[in-house]
Each structure stands twice: as C-alpha cells, then as structure tokens.
Amino acid sequence: ALVVFLTNLRSEDATHVVKATRLLRPRHLVVVASLRETELELAAAEPVASRMQALGYGALCTYFQDRERLLRVLRRQKVALVDEVAAQLPVALANQYLDLKNSGAL
Q1: What is the pLDDT of residues 63-78, one digit of tens each?
Q2: What are the beta bridge partners of residue 77?
Q3: pLDDT tens across 1-50, in order?
Q4: How far is residue 76's CA from residue 70's CA, in Å, rounded to a whole number?
Q5: pTM for this one?
Q6: Three-state secondary structure string covering 20-31
Q7: In which order are the strands placed within the sheet that holds 29-36?
Q8: Torsion angle, CA of 37/42/47/49, rounded to 10 degrees?
Q9: Degrees, nearest 5: CA angle 100-13-92
C-alpha cells in the first residue's frame, strides 16, 4: 500500500516519524509530505537590524538545520519526500505519485 504522512516536520517529531517510517517501509511504500512554513522563510529573509532580530534569526537557522537533518535521515531510509509550502503541496504530491507510478514502485 502507499502510505502518505501529511505533516509539518519539526525536530521534536523526528523520533516518531523516523520510527513510523522504519516500521512501515518493509511492507509499504511510504511518502512523507511535509508543509514548509512560508512565514518562517519570509522571516529568515528579513534584514537583521537589532540584537533581538539576530537572536530570532539564529533560532530560525537552527530550526532549518534541524529540519534538513531530519529530511536527510528520511532520505537515507529511502522514504519518498515532498517538502513544499501549502500552496504548492497538492501539485507536488500529485507529481510524486505520478513519479512513483511511472518508476514502477507502485
């Protein structure tokens, strides 16, 4: 079966998501579809003009690094990933499905 996790990956979810995909992968094709947060990407692009903004920017960088680390772990497990903002997620998920179908994985 094709199992699709629709989530917003965060570092605090890492243990649960990795464990769930590891348990499902031997018998199912697993896709993790993660919503990227547009607001955080926009905030990271803002110029830093104060100490508080610098602290916020540092926290955002840590968040993005942790999230990317989790995506790498899932890729190493051979989990299909879709990582998109909400507006683009339906199309990206449909394209991932078609790619899996065309590859014969499904």
Answers
A1: 999 999 999 999 998 8
A2: none
A3: 999 999 888 878 788 888 999 999 999 999 999 999 889 888 889 999 99
A4: 10
A5: 0.82
A6: HHHHHCCCCEEE
A7: 2-7, 29-36, 80-85
A8: -60
A9: 30
Token pair listed for 55 = 């602290």
Tokens describing residue 40: 């955080």
State how far Cα 70 lies from the chain centre: 8
- Contacts of range 60-68, beta carbons closer than 8 Å, 24 or more positions apart: 63/10, 63/11, 64/40, 66/10, 66/11, 66/14, 67/9, 67/10, 67/11
Supply the pLDDT for residue 53: 92
In which residue are the tokens 């610098």 written? Answer: 54
Q: CA 29 to CA 25: how far, in whole Å?
A: 6
